[in-house]
Amino acid sequence: MTAYEAQDPNFERRVRDSFNRQGFMAFIGATLERVTPGFCEIKVPYKPALTQQHGFFHGGITGAIADTAAGYAAFSLMPADATILTTEYKINLVAPARGEALVARARVKKAGRTLTVVECDVFGQEGGKEGGKETAVAHLLATMLCLHGKTDNPRASRDTMNS
Amino acid sequence: MTAYEAQDPNFERRVRDSFNRQGFMAFIGATLERVTPGFCEIKVPYKPALTQQHGFFHGGITGAIADTAAGYAAFSLMPADATILTTEYKINLVAPARGEALVARARVKKAGRTLTVVECDVFGQEGGKEGGKETAVAHLLATMLCLHGKTDNPRASRDTMNS
Amino acid sequence: MTAYEAQDPNFERRVRDSFNRQGFMAFIGATLERVTPGFCEIKVPYKPALTQQHGFFHGGITGAIADTAAGYAAFSLMPADATILTTEYKINLVAPARGEALVARARVKKAGRTLTVVECDVFGQEGGKEGGKETAVAHLLATMLCLHGKTDNPRASRDTMNS
Amino acid sequence: MTAYEAQDPNFERRVRDSFNRQGFMAFIGATLERVTPGFCEIKVPYKPALTQQHGFFHGGITGAIADTAAGYAAFSLMPADATILTTEYKINLVAPARGEALVARARVKKAGRTLTVVECDVFGQEGGKEGGKETAVAHLLATMLCLHGKTDNPRASRDTMNS
């Protein structure tokens, strides 16, 4: 396991600010549990509004928290004056997403100046609490794009994003 | 473009029933616009609850409707006594997901007895109405698994899913 | 289908020169059949040296010509002073790769300054000649990276690649 | 890391027999270094015939040994009367594939009756010998399909493969 160092000492604040601006994460009830350099964990408790036709978590929730955790694992290593876009991801759904909570844990595999490759495992958690039995439900492999000199918070500046 | 024929004449009802049992699709306001043998279209109007940190549709929404449209495009070709699981998908996000609505259109590339490969394009739609200017925002390639002899509606029978 | 225009009028020569420097393409007997702006076709005739354990073309050959065709479809649209790297690709192998030849046809889906998304279909061709019956054996979706200001031919200059 | 147990005590012989029937692995000079339940390592020494236009290993070689290692990691866990097909894989190429050898190491992430998910890391190895400095060049995530009741060696029986 590679240990990474953050370029920006305020990486955690920057990541949490960005997460808090995601209307969709609040809408589904997801929380940012942990962010360290090159790592991020996101959790979402079960509710019927998040299900697919068999009553398990919808694959869209699994994909959304895996992609978001992967993005912030990468973003934690980027410089202060950069923003991030997901270029692409691939996800294998390996078991029905059951449990009182879903937990996504993402780790950077390779950090580059332009592109960062991240993997993320998603688990169904019994009881929905740390220490509850966990079952792997999905594995993701993603490519993140760093846009240098673009703020992640367009409302705080006159910068606009044009990729 | 391959033309497909449905094995089950009631495919549309079966797809719509399944879609309507997805709590998550209702939660985000998605509608099933069209389903024909091997094809499915899903649409979701913009609202702030569906956004990422820059105010565009969250990648999780793009992924969720693309995966769901791909699943039902495949499901339309399956026999009446089968259910479907997404094995995996890969998605490229090629432009910011802006517009009054997102529209996902999925087409089966190869239908097999066990596995079906589907592609899906997602567009941002100006005005949110048919005929509005559309911009491609994502491309998905997915593998769907057919479980024969399992109902898609576990509440309607005593069958249980064990994959 | 989007029509693309090449930035570099000498794109075909540049693509063919690059292809000819690929020792591996010569080794397997692959030929560059066609390149137009945003499109590329590569073909490889059957020989036992290219097989997997069941006697069909090895998935590595399918992947190699699909990735290479996708790369040159993207490269055809890039400026003269750029080189290309495959960032990632995903490939679905949908049928045994049989036939007297394999043919890969790649088309750009979205051309960007930094990243280009390309799809490629691979067919097994009966008789190994144009007009022979073709069966789809694989579908690929790839992301290509354009490195501006780097020559594609390091032997022709003092530039070195450092990605 | 999950520890797996092989269903078939002769798994190593079965894997090596299958590998030895792959004309393509011999053609490129690849060797099966190690196979244990759920794990497989394949190595290929550098030669100019295996290169792309910049003189590094071709992505097709990287993909081929990663896919093959992933397949045999999965195959090691399958019953004696089964064969295997790659359904799909996704690969990120994270650094130029330089070194005197390429080494692919694959590990099963989730073994199922029908589908098995495998990851594989590929390294460029200085000196081409165990203990030489290694640099990660690629990461793969693949889905393998188990065909029960089909022999992996069609020349040894009258079975034919029809997927």
Describe this structure as you would to a colleague.
The structure is a homotetramer of 163-residue chains. With 163 residues, chain A is an alpha+beta fold. Helices cover 20% and strands 38% of the residues of chain A. The first copy, chain A, has three helices and six strands. Chain A has a six-stranded antiparallel beta sheet. Chain A is globular, with a radius of gyration of 16 Å. Chain A binds chain B through residues 18-19, 21-27, 48-55, 58-61, 63-65, 67-68, 83, 85-93, 95-96, 152-155, 161, 163, and chain B through 18-19, 21-27, 48-55, 58-61, 63-65, 67-68, 83, 85-93, 95-96, 152-155, 161, 163.
Question: What's the short version?
Answer:
The structure is a homotetramer of 163-residue chains. Helix content of chain A is 20%, strand content 38%.
